[in-house]
């Protein structure tokens, strides 16, 4: 099927004015859905049991035990990633790219706006500094786009920006767009809720428009990989808003629902495929589509996609993509460990762009006021949470709130307990049917319920407007998860509040990390957290001495 994509005003460039290397050098760069009433066992008791029996975790170990950091990560992505299916993708054949008849493609589609051409390097430097943007990578780096006009986008996209009330590109967009449009591989790290999705969707649409149209049997031109089904659906919606009016179609490919509709979309031909890795591998193996035309690869939540849970699947998928593709990666967290892996998926050393950098430290969105309550035991925590919740609901009749728990059963139990206490709450996690997950998210988005109780399946990427509070009822397993969880509030310039409940008996290992994250955004570290972290350090020293 042939479709012509029209993007008025978009030209392709083979060369564009770039910042000089001299300039680059300075770039130091919150009861209707009643559940059955509480059976009498508290969520907290259940959690304790869950911890001791390990019967509700994709990955068994409990906090504070001696398991490795990696095995503790993201214990509720099993159904989204099919990561238990080790053989997924094993039937895929190895492609000899030397002998493939590949469609020629244009990587560099950047055309510098005359205003940017005339803009002195010093003005660029000041903008980067004031926006706290750090760039590390080979020159030439294009100048940042200070206004939407600088991106020279089709009128309909400009109108969509206007309709959504956007007045200028966010920091990551202003520098990420020109770098991506220049055909560069890149890693783009910016706070939660800072517009990274459009950061990759806009250049992706232009990239597609610059390529020869799809022919019958062609697979997608752009591939976006994301860790959860809900995130795939969200990105697909945004890609439809901005792509469909220009004739760019996308397919959302994810597990838990029938393959048929997804397979049909792929067979009919879509320019963009947005997928969770497991279902995509499944459809690749069945020969439903192929990735030979993919020239633009995006890993959203890149550090998550490259960690142990997903990396083998990403590797198999990438083996089906031509080696000269352009790769861009986006997240609010990044680490040295994933940097090395990231390089494997790029054709060049990727440009590393960080917004709000503070010496490579993990950074939370400063628009979120981070509160912490430290108590002695898990049962104290339950009482503290109840009391806090009562106070919040006295001040505000319908606060919108996500409450994170450690386990799926913990989420269901807490939800039952909240419902029993007359709060409107629903729980979401990886053991629920996809249709139910979709309905629950819709109800939360529409304000039908005040409280969404969730596992880490909702920790990354979800953009639900006007969430007032994120509560860590159970402490996150790692600092990255903390930053992503609390990042579900305080988005797109709005303010949010996070409340983390920590029990001295079980959460000591994360206290120091949370204290550091609070300190990094210049907020006051709660005294009880300082004291608990200090006593943890003391205990560690004592344990060390006793082992000598
Ligand atoms: N230029 C802009 N001006 C104002 N708002 C914007 C702009 N671009 C995007 N947004 C809005 O910002 C919100 C957050 O965007 P998005 O979900 O892309 O954030 P993110 O950086 O990907 O966050 P996360 O790290 O949690 O995935 C969305 O509601 C989006 O519509
Ligand atoms: Mg995102």
Description:
The chain is of the alpha/beta class. It has two domains: 250 residues, P-loop containing nucleotide triphosphate hydrolases (Rossmann fold, 3-Layer(aba) Sandwich); 180 residues, Rossmann fold. 38% of the residues lie in helices and 12% in strands. It has an eight-stranded mixed β-sheet. The chain starts with 20 loop residues before the first helix and ends with a helix. 51% of the residues are buried. About 13% of the residues have low confidence. The structure holds adenosine-5'-triphosphate and magnesium ion (MG). Adenosine-5'-triphosphate (ATP) binds next to helix 8. Adenosine-5'-triphosphate binds next to helix 8.
Features:
548 residues, alpha/beta, Rossmann fold, six-stranded parallel sheet, globular
Fold topology:
Blueprint: H1 21-25, H2 43-53, H3 78-81, H4 114-118, H5 121-130, E1 133-136, H6 155-163, H7 171-181, E2 186-189, H8 196-209, E3 222-225, H9 229-243, E4 250-253, H10 259-268, E5 272-275, H11 277-285, E6 296-300, H12 302-305, H13 311-318, E7 326-331, H14 336-343, E8 351-355, E9 368-375, H15 378-395, E10 401-404, H16 408-420, E11 425-428, H17 434-445, E12 451-454, E13 469-472, H18 479-486, E14 496-503, H19 508-520, H20 527-547
Parallel strand pairs: 2-7, 2-8, 3-5, 3-6, 4-5, 6-7, 9-14, 10-12, 10-13, 11-12, 13-14
Antiparallel strand pairs: 1-8
Helix pairs in contact: 2-15, 2-16, 7-8, 8-9, 11-13, 19-20
The structure holds adenosine-5'-triphosphate and magnesium ion (MG).
Magnesium ion is lined by residues 196-197, 300, 461.
């Amino acid at each position: 099927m042939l479709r012509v994509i029209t993007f008025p005003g978009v030209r392709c460039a083979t060369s564009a004015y770039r910042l000089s290397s001299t300039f680059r050098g300075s770039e130091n760069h919150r009861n209707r859905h009643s559940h059955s009433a509480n059976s009498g066992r508290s969520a907290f008791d259940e959690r304790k049991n869950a911890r001791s029996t390990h019967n509700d975790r994709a990955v068994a170990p409990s906090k504070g035990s001696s398991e490795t950091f990696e095995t503790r990560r993201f214990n509720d992505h099993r159904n989204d990633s099919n990561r238990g299916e080790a053989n997924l993708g094993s039937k895929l054949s190895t492609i000899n790219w030397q002998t493939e008849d590949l469609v020629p493609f244009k990587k560099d589609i950047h055309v510098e706006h005359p205003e940017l051409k005339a803009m002195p390097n010093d003005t660029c430097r000041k903008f980067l500094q004031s926006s706290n943007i750090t760039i590390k990578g080979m020159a030439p780096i294009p100048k940042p786009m200070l206004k939407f006009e600088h991106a020279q986008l089709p009128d309909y996209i400009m109108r969509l920006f206007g309709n959504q009330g956007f007045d200028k590109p966010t920091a990551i967009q202003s520098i990420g767009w020109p770098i991506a449009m220049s055909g560069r591989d890149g890693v783009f790290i910016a706070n939660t809720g800072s517009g990274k999705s459009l950061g990759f969707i806009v250049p992706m649409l232009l990239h597609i428009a610059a390529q020869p149209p799809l022919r019958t049997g062609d697979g997608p031109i752009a591939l976006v990989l994301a860790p959860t089904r809900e995130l795939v659906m969200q990105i697909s919606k945004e890609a439809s808003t901005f792509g469909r009016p220009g004739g760019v179609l996308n397919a959302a490919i994810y597990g838990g629902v029938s393959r048929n509709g997804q397979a049909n979309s792929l067979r009919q031909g879509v320019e963009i495929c947005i997928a969770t890795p497991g279902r995509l591998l499944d459809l690749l193996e069945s020969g439903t589509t192929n990735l030979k035309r993919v020239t633009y690869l995006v890993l959203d939540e890149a550090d998550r996609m490259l960690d142990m849970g997903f990396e083998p699947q990403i590797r198999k998928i990438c083996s089906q993509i031509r080696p000269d593709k352009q790769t861009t990666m986006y997240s609010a967290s990044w680490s040295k460990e994933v940097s090395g892996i990231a390089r494997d998926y790029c054709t060049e050393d990727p440009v590393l762009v960080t917004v709000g950098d503070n010496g490579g430290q993990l950074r939370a969105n400063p628009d979120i006021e981070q509160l912490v309550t430290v108590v002695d035991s898990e049962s104290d925590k339950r009482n503290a949470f109840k009391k806090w919740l009562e106070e919040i609901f006295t001040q505000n009749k319908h606060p919108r709130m996500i409450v994170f728990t450690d386990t799926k059963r913990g989420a269901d139990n807490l939800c039952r307990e909240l419902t029993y206490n007359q709060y409107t709450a629903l729980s979401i996690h990886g053991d629920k049917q996809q249709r139910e997950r979709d309905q629950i998210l819709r109800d939360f988005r529409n304000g039908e319920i005040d409280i969404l109780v969730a596992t880490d399946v909702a920790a990354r990427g979800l953009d639900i407007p006007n969430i007032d509070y994120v509560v860590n009822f159970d402490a996150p397993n790692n600092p990255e998860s903390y930053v992503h969880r609390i990042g579900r509030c305080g988005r797109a310039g709005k303010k949010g509040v996070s409340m983390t409940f920590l029990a001295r008996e079980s959460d000591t290992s994360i206290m120091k990390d949370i204290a550091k994250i609070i300190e990094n955004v210049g907020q006051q570290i709660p005294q009880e957290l300082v004291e608990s972290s200090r006593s943890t350090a003391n205990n560690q020293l004592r344990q060390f001495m006793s082992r000598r």
